[in-house]
Amino acid sequence: MPIKIPRDLPAYQELSSENVFVMTTDRAEHQDIRPLRVGIVNLMPTTVTTELQLLRLLGNSPLQVDIFFLRMGSHESRNAPPGHLEKFYLSTQEIISLGLRFDGLIITGAPVETLSFEEVDYWNELAAIIDYSASHVWSTLHICWGAQAGLYRRYGIEKKPLDHKLFGIFSHRVRCPNMPLFRGFDDEFLAPQSRHTTSDREAIAACPALTIESETGEAGVFISTARKGREIYVSGHLEYDPLTLDREYRRDLERGLPIALPKNYYPADDPQRAPVVRWRAHAHLFFSNWLNCVYQETPYKLEEIV
Predict the structure, then answer these.
(1) Does 245 reside within a domain?
(2) The whole model's pTM is what?
(3) pLDDT per residue as tens digits for the range 88-146
(4) Residue 221: inside a domain
(5) Which of 57, 91, 108, 271 is deepest in the core (most CB within 10 A)?
């Protein structure tokens, strides 16, 4: 949450330049407060686990957040518990037909990255919700394949296959430290990656609407944004819990798939030892910063979102 101070207090300018979240007294006096409405398009096969991971981060804030889970009505999930989606989720068709608006929307990754976008059985429905979010959501946060899908749908940026799976914990550098999403971040921070493809970095850099906010030579572009943070594309998985990469690694081993040890994950690269979590603090900070940005910028009346 922001601190409320007079604009003419000497500390105001210095704190603002340091990207500390400050609010002027006059703005606070005229601010209306209501719960934030956040939708989650959950495309992951680990339905319940992904819910828990995201809610854990979204719940670490003093803000009240009303959560709406969204599913692809055109896709039949084989992994969710029986009746779970019908009980707790709305279909994206329902959202669009009702004209519901959101302060924030999260579109997760999905295990379909080796397919072309048009080959995904729910692509038309996902494309419709991406288009819908442009005028009915204040800020949309795209994660992993969800980021690739958003960049492709909005800007025609293709994804490219990697020579080998990018898998493990990687260091990323903040390019724009004054960007509100990075309030309180170190210059470099760690985050999990788990993907076989990547969005074209040159195409992202060449697109005038997009800004690369964080990247690394090894993992490529990590975060890019558009429309002053109303579109956020995250190539990795800050939301992952301590054992997510371990489960993925052991799953692929059991299936006989070619899989290397996740980098920088197990102590001494020994998969018999429990991984040490080194990304949790920045994950909480990133999601808290996002909620605070949404809280400050969204019109009080959601119907005023354009």
Answers:
(1) no
(2) 0.90
(3) 899 999 999 999 999 999 999 999 999 999 999 999 999 999 999 999 999 999 999 99
(4) yes
(5) 108
Residues 245, 167 contacting (CB under 8 angstroms)? yes
Domain count, the chain: 1
Structural domain of residue 51, as residue ranges? 31-160+199-240+281-300
Q: Does residue 193 lie within any of the structural domains? A: no
Task: Give me the chain's average pLDDT, please.
Answer: 90
pLDDT tens string 244-263? 999 999 999 999 998 999 99
Which positions are annotated as active-site residues? 144, 237, 239
| Residue 154 covered by a domain | yes
Tokens of 46: 């680990």
